[in-house]
Give the backbone structure.
Amino acid sequence: MNITVYCGSKTGRDPAYTEAAAALGQWICSRGYDMVYGGGNIGLMSVTADIVLAGGRAVTGVIPEFLLQYETGHEGRYTLEVTRDMSQRKNRMLELGDVYLAMPGGTGTLEEIAEAISLQKLGRHEKPCIFYNINGFFDPLKQMFTSMVNEGFLRPEDQEKILFARSIEELDELLP
């Protein structure tokens, strides 16, 4: 199974994010999964990819051509796919993934997981969309989804498909 991981090109201020990224990499290996991600060798992306590679699992990076000079450079069971732009990158990451998981990150991370959720809502896939909610990072977003339901912009049954996990143990409960 391929876990598509969306996460920051930075590590953030709280060391818990880096620790969680490493734990996620170890969990991916322990479950016998492989990883798909944005192809960078910086930030939380690199932390998780490095652990997965060190654990002997396959990692596929998908990166737009214009970012090549900033964010690549892994070795091992590593495949790098270069796309012409961000749109093609997102589509390819969606194609390759069996599960979509967002770690803390910035606007790019949010955009990528939001597209996966939107496509799920539109019936384009039935794959899990999970927020790895380290230290409550995604709590405001979770509240926003509740507001969307309360205001009639999101159906409750669609909100139920948007998953949140605060720990590796909760990830285990969400995936087969």
